[in-house]
Write a structure and sequence with these properties.
This protein is α/β, with parallel strands linked by helices. The chain has 2 domains: 159 residues, Rossmann fold (3-Layer(aba) Sandwich); 89 residues. 48% of the residues lie in helices and 13% in strands. About 5% of the residues have low confidence.
Length: 261
Amino acid sequence: MIEAVLFDFGGTLVQPKKTWPEIRKEGVKASYSFLKKKGLKKTFEDYARVNEKIFKRYAEREAAEDRDIPDILKYRELIGELFPSFSRREKSRLASETNDVFWAVTAKAQTPSRRVGFALRKLRSVGLRMAVVSNHHNGKSLREMLGSFGMGQYFEVVIASEEVGVRKPNPKIFRICLSRLRLRRDQVIFVGDSLLYDVVGARAAGIISVLYAEDTPDELKTPRDRNGVKTHKNPGVVPDFVVGDLSSLPRVIELIGGPAK
């Protein structure tokens, strides 16, 4: 019997109002304005080049190591290069503040997915537990966004990839969530918007997968054969269910067998 529903965050619980390059550009501008007030002498163009250089190098490292590195480490390096005369304590504080400025911009660029509130209330009303498993570079910001959108109260466990050293589609991140919930893989389903990260990862962990594809027809059938997935790198995977509206999730639970009583 199903006891919990695990969710992806971006693209599932919330939707971006703009593209990621647009959001990042606004975040870089906001962080530059903030640092100018702290004494930064560089032009925006010079600041943007330094910022891009550092974040690109970390992105290459993340790809090589298959993990998400906390953004705070990138900002500490950035501040160290921009303010070499500052004390270690001053650099650490300024890096944390700059990180917060960037992620505040990111938060404002998100909006809750359609009918997500209804879906979460309904799932909780039938006794289901809930958790979030997200590829995210700032777990603190992730939890703050969940709270600001009125969702934080629903999630017993929130897993941010930067905090656990592994990211989707690696099945280890799903197993970490299961361990914290003290549940087995056959007691949960995972809901996400990405075939590559969410569906492949969940099914590699042996978890029933639900692809959220907003405004597409639901495919609420009995679970398909899941024996074809051997590793999290297998690209030929299909979801067990597809929903175009998160309010369809209670029906998915019913088809699988309903929440445990």
